[in-house]
């Protein structure tokens, strides 16, 4: 496989906070020590890209920045010192794109907690571009038989959902409640949880979303607006409550609800970013010995594991397919809460592995 690499490429960049993303012509980056250049075929679009565009995160991105962090493509150039990849390898390029590798957190497998953490499309140039330079230690091979578009959302949505479940420490047969189950991340969490042998209660709101959950065999779908969530969970768990709840819904109320659904010594994992603070009754918390913990993306190992579930057919990943040029309308739909499931933008239509 041979690649002719042009001097410039198209990249979707935020040039000014709060303004539409521009597709601009920029130089193709050169891979440095330990890095590879990837010719991207497509990239997923995530709500974080909306935050980067609008600058409403606690740490706004340094502009201009190329957005995107769910890229898939082929290695087309290898920097000095890279041993684990060869030209033509199909890789996915996730949001967790780098860490120092030698601090205590990194050595303990917690690179996402490293002070030198790099998140692509936010802190370093992202994957909504024709080419991407990535640290080879943070790229993951896409298993044979997995389509590019199926692999892309695993880079962020899939691995984040999978990691949150791992953090819950649950074993097969135990019960997990997933709040925001019909959303982009929740949908993956439901599938990973079922594949892990957990009993799953999926909570969301509205008839359309509840109906969409019913396609998952074995799930108990609950409408937060019309059903008695606590009553349903208690009746399914012999009156004790779930072993854990994972909150993807971006409201404080969802986490407060989750605290009422877990049993004594249960765990609530918070993933969704809510604008308002959570109210917690500390007496109940202490007496019921409940753990609340946060979870953020996943490591390279988590991503490999999450990808294996897809390769083995234990989960499905079928995002909506759009054009690269439609990036602004994709972002607007995400911002307006109109997006259904995940969306990928096709960058190089002729080179996709489907
Ligand atoms: Zn993301
Ligand atoms: Zn580190």
- Tell me the helix content: 25-40%
Distance from N terminus to C terminus (CA atoms, Å) equals: 18 Å
The Rg value, from CA coordinates, equals 20 Å
Topology, number of strands:
18
Globular, elongated, flat, extended or rod-shaped: what is the shape? globular
- Per DSSP, the total helix count is 11
Any low-confidence stretches, pLDDT <50, length ≥5?
Answer: none
Oligomeric grouping of the chains: single chain
- CATH homologous superfamily caption of the largest domain: Medium-chain alcohol dehydrogenases, catalytic domain
State the name of the first-level CATH class of the largest domain: Alpha Beta
Percent of residues in beta strands? 25-35%
CATH architecture of the largest domain: Alpha-Beta Complex
Structure description:
- By secondary structure, the chain is of the alpha/beta class.
- The protein has 2 domains: 8-156 and 298-346, Medium-chain alcohol dehydrogenases, catalytic domain (Quinone Oxidoreductase, Chain A, domain 1, Alpha-Beta Complex); 159-294, 3-Layer(aba) Sandwich (Rossmann fold), CATH 3.40.50.720.
- 26% of the residues lie in helices and 26% in strands.
- The protein is built from 11 helices and 18 strands.
- The chain has helices at 47-54, 104-107, 148-151, 157-168, 184-195, 207-213, 229-236, 252-261, 282-288, 300-311, 327-335, and strands spanning 8-14, 22-27, 35-45, 65-66, 71-78, 90-93, 96-98, 118-119, 131-135, 140-141, 175-179, 199-204, 220-223, 242-247, 262-270, 291-294, 320-323, 343-346.
- Helix 4 packs across helix 5 (184-195) and helix 4 (157-168) crosses helix 10.
- The chain is globular.
- One zinc ion (ZN) is lined by residues 99-100, 103, 105-106, 111, 114, 116.
């Amino acid at each position: 496989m041979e690649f002719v690499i042009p001097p410039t490429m198209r990249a979707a960049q935020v040039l000014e906070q709060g303004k539409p993303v521009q597709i601009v012509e920029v130089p193709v980056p050169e891979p440095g020590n330990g890095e590879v250049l990837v010719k991207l075929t497509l990239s997923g679009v995530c709500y974080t890209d909306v935050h980067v565009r609008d600058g409403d995160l606690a740490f706004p991105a340094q502009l201009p920045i190329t957005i995107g962090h769910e890229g898939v493509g082929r290695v087309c150039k290898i920097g000095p010192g890279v041993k684990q990849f060869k030209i033509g390898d199909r890789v996915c390029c996730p949001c967790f794109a780098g860490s120092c590798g030698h601090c205590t957190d990194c050595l303990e497998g917690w690179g996402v907690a490293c002070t030198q953490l790099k998140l692509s499309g936010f802190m370093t140039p992202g994957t909504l571009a024709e080419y991407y330079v990535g640290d080879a230690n943070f790229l993951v091979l896409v298993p044979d038989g997995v389509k590019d578009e199926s692999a892309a959302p695993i880079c962020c949505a899939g691995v984040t959902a999978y990691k949150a479940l791992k953090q819950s420490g649950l074993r097969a047969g135990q019960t997990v409640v997933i709040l925001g189950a019909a959303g982009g991340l929740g949908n993956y969490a439901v599938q990973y949880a079922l594949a892990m042998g957990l009993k799953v209660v999926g909570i969301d709101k509205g008839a359309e979303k509840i109906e969409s959950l019913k396609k998952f065999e074995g799930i108990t779908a609950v409408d937060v607006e019309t059903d008695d969530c606590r009553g349903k969970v208690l009746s399914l768990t012999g009156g004790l409550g779930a072993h854990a709840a994972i909150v993807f819904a971006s409201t404080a109320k969802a986490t407060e609800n989750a605290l009422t659904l877990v049993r004594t010594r249960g765990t609530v994992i918070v993933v969704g970013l809510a604008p308002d603070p959570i109210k917690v009754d500390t007496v109940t918390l202490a007496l019921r010995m409940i753990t609340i913990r946060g979870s953020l993306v996943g490591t390279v190992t988590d991503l490999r594991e999450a990808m294996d579930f897809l390769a083995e057919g234990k989960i499905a990943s079928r995002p909506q397919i759009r054009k690269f040029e439609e990036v602004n309308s994709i972002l607007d739909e995400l911002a307006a809460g109109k997006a259904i499931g995940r969306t990928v933008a096709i960058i190089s239509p002729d080179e996709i592995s489907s």
